[in-house]
Design goal:
With 483 residues, this protein is mainly α. The chain has a domain of 236 residues: Serine Threonine Protein Phosphatase 5, Tetratricopeptide repeat (Alpha Horseshoe). Helix 7 packs antiparallel against helix 8. It is globular.
């Protein structure tokens, strides 16, 4: 009898254990996430970060002088301590983008396939992940300078990673990008529909990667040790983006949570935080730019666009705002574009690099592509380029850097970091500085300072990095900023 009772007890315990296990399992929170899902999530996080105008996370459209603030003017005056923007950007790139890409690659590496096409698709997927790694790390270097790199994301080994030399990082990024490009097989697939930029089109990813290499080469063009000329020429020979249909973008959906962050920041929030700057409005008026109506609406009650003074309090009802097109929930986020590439090519030719065509050809192509992208037509572009103030041979400016710089800046509207970096690289701007600038001499910052959290969590390595770059100051130039 005891034996029978014992057997029954075993069955009851086993049954209860199974029931308890089922009850304690959250079926809505998966314990494992696929590599494809992590890759898609990293893509969206990256696109969101680039597109956002939320002053807690992205202030590049302010620093590029495309918009200024109305009531709260801290960010336009270069205050990055109050809302800790450097820390927010640092965290987003490392945790939400690079970490997801890292985990995606680990899962992909561990996957085994038998069919040759699946093996080839796996290789393409890993190469594409690497391309986005390079994109994200370059952006971080161009924000801060020296950053955690060789020890970054290795949480099993250290939680206090050292900061690596920015020039050395760039050198390694070129190598990684070259390897990734060589690993792409355009005859095979990759992520398919789970790639929200190119739908798994490997040929487009190859053009994206070469365009990124060209961009990196132009950025460090004044650093002789990195052999930018050879990198740019190789990228163009292998094939860069040549048409707007090849742009690297994420097209958003019309419903939350997959709308463009601009819609959330400018419409859904109900806030009226931004107006156009007098800097860009006055510049566009000087050039009689046909994109004026495509970028900004008329000032309330006026027949023209009017911009506010940068860094001052500006009444929302007195100045022009971003157009409704930009506020659409489906408006795309741009990673790299044909007009950006064309301006890089114009600059490359002026530097004596063999990338084909003339500087004027590429300058014209960049302007034309921008006007058409924003809704203008070829006739408007032709008329604009015929203006003596715009035509490459007669446009005012001390040198080609000013000519290309101004038009590249105008074309980079809505892509704050590109416009801001163009300002840093080519030094074409002479904009008045804001009244309460937090920089030592009131001038525009040339980098983010390191995150406040790092001072507490990784202080020794941060101090070493600050010493290596010449001081953790917003006016400390990055290694490539030679002008």
């Amino acid at each position: 009898m005891k034996k029978i009772l014992f057997i029954l007890l075993v069955f009851v315990v086993a049954s209860c254990s199974k029931d308890f296990e089922e009850m304690n399992t959250n079926t809505k929170s998966p314990v494992a996430v696929s590599g494809e899902t992590l890759f898609t999530n990293a893509q969206k996080n990256l696109a969101d970060q680039l597109a956002s105008v939320n002053v807690n996370t992205n202030i590049w459209k302010l620093w590029a002088r495309y918009i200024t603030e109305t009531t709260y003017v801290d960010e336009a005056n270069y205050d990055i301590v109050n809302r800790t923007q450097p820390g927010n950007a640092f965290r987003t790139y490392y945790r939400n983008i690079l970490r997801d890409l890292q985990e995606s690659a680990v899962i992909m590496e561990e996957a085994t396939f038998a069919a040759p096409e699946d093996i080839a698709a796996k290789a393409n997927r890993l190469a594409i992940i690497e391309i986005l790694n390079v994109f994200a790390y370059q952006r971080l270097v161009d924000m801060f300078g020296d950053i955690p790199y060789t020890e970054a994301l290795k949480v099993d080994e250290t939680t206090i990673p050292k900061y690596d030399d920015a020039e050395g990082i760039y050198s390694d990024l070129f190598s990684r990008l070259n390897t990734a490009i060589a690993g792409l097989d355009v005859a095979n697939g990759s992520f398919g529909s789970q790639d929200v930029y190119y739908g798994g089109d490997v040929a487009m990813w190859k053009k994206f990667a070469n365009s990124l290499k060209l961009k990196m080469a132009i950025t460090v063009a004044d650093v002789s040790s990195l052999n930018s000329k050879a990198a740019a020429e190789a990228a163009v020979t292998d094939g860069v983006i040549t048409d707007a249909s090849e742009n690297g973008t994420l097209v958003y959906l019309g419903a939350s949570p997959n709308t463009n962050p601009l819609y959330l920041d400018l419409v859904a929030s109900g806030r009226h935080d931004f107006v156009a700057t007098a800097d860009i409005i006055d510049t566009m008026k000087f050039y009689v730019d046909p994109r004026m109506d495509l970028y900004y609406d008329l000032a309330p009650g006026a027949t023209v666009q009017v911009g506010g003074a940068y860094g001052y309090s500006n009444a929302y009802d007195l100045y022009s705002h971003l157009t409704a097109t930009i506020e659409e929930p489906t408006f795309e986020s741009m990673l790299i574009s044909v007009e950006e590439v064309e301006f890089y090519l114009a600059e490359a030719i002026e530097r004596g690099w063999a990338v084909g065509g003339t500087a004027e050809d590429h300058y014209n192509a960049g302007i034309t592509a921008s006007i058409i992208y924003w809704g203008g037509d070829a006739a408007a572009a032709t008329a604009y380029l015929a203006d003596a103030n715009v035509a490459y041979s007669t446009a005012p400016g001390a040198d080609w850097k000013e000519k290309i710089g101004i038009q590249s800046w105008l074309a980079s509207f809505n892509r704050g970091f590109i416009g801001y970096t163009t300002m840093r690289r080519l030094d074409f701007h002479t904009f008045p500085q804001p009244p309460q600038a937090r920089t030592d001499d009131g001038s525009t910052p040339v980098r983010y300072t390191y995150p406040i959290d790092e001072q507490t969590l990784n202080g020794a390595n941060l101090d070493a990095a600050a010493a290596a770059i010449g001081g953790d100051n917003m006016l400390t130039k990055l290694f490539w900023d030679a002008n």
